[in-house]
Amino acid sequence: xxxxxxxxxxxHPFIIYKLKKEGFIxxxxxxxxxxxxxxxVYDGLIxxxxxxxxxxxxxxxxxxxxxxxxxxxxxxxxxxxxxxKGIVLISSPEGNKDAVAEHAIGMLLCAMNHILRSHQQIxxxxxxxxxxxxxxxMEKTIGIIGxxxxxxxxxxxxxxxxxKILCYDILPKIGDAYAKQVDMSTIFKKxxxxxxxxxxxxxxKGMINYDxxxxxxxxxxxxxxxxxxxxxxxxxxxxxKDGKIHGACLDVLEYENFSFENIFHHxxxxxxxxxxxxxxxxxxxxxxxxxxxxxxxxxxxxxxxxIILLNKKLN
Length: 315
What we know:
This protein has 315 residues and is of the alpha/beta class. It has two domains: 111 residues, NAD(P)-binding Rossmann-like Domain (Rossmann fold), CATH 3.40.50.720; 188 residues, Rossmann fold (3-Layer(aba) Sandwich), CATH 3.40.50.720. The protein is built from twelve helices and twelve strands. It has a seven-stranded parallel β-sheet, sandwiched between helices. The chain has a five-stranded parallel β-sheet with strand order 2-1-3-4-5. Strand 3, helix 2 and strand 4 form a beta-alpha-beta unit. The chain is elongated. The termini are close together.
């Protein structure tokens, strides 16, 4: 039975209200480090990305039954050890999938139609029409790499653009009415646009590198709303300079740490970061694709539902 839950980050007020209404005791600790927190008395933890939940911390949590990560990624948690200890891992990718999908489409439209660039030019008194001639999504082939919650939401929202949508995933038979599942060789051969929707794992770390990009038969637009560490930035910049990629839309960057804090604060940025921010082929946003007012509520709601369901199973 789950009785006491420690909440480690501020969330939508709904989450504490609903959990208390269901009879759970909720404690809040938004500032201490894992070295300062004693998890022994808790049956569950709820967090986002502020803290790294490692083996040392989990060993102290003798009564822990679940760890709930609000959002989709769980790379700040030692998942192997958690599962070894029989602790249930909960996340809520369903809650921000639509926000991420809308953001990805917004960035793509900006890149293909030079919206941001022409906006900045007009502010400087420049009226360039021919140089900002865009491209349409219609009749393009879009390759989605990773066809989970966000990949599926992205494909569904693209369905009105009259494009051909393909998807690749390590799991078989998950294509649907919105995207045809194919192998990577087909993605390499046919794609005009690539959108990355994979978790950050040992297998996906640095997967978008120059050798990978060279396998595409034609230049493409690239979108990354998954994790920055999946892309080797130097290789991406080289591919843009070489004309192998038309433009890149990046909501996540290789330089972020696990807590996604302000990258300008936590370490010295490399030269290629400043190349990116001065490139008119790259659109950057500060890891906000899933960061909407609606998703904040939906992610918390989904976490609460999963905790209540788990408690019923444990009783």
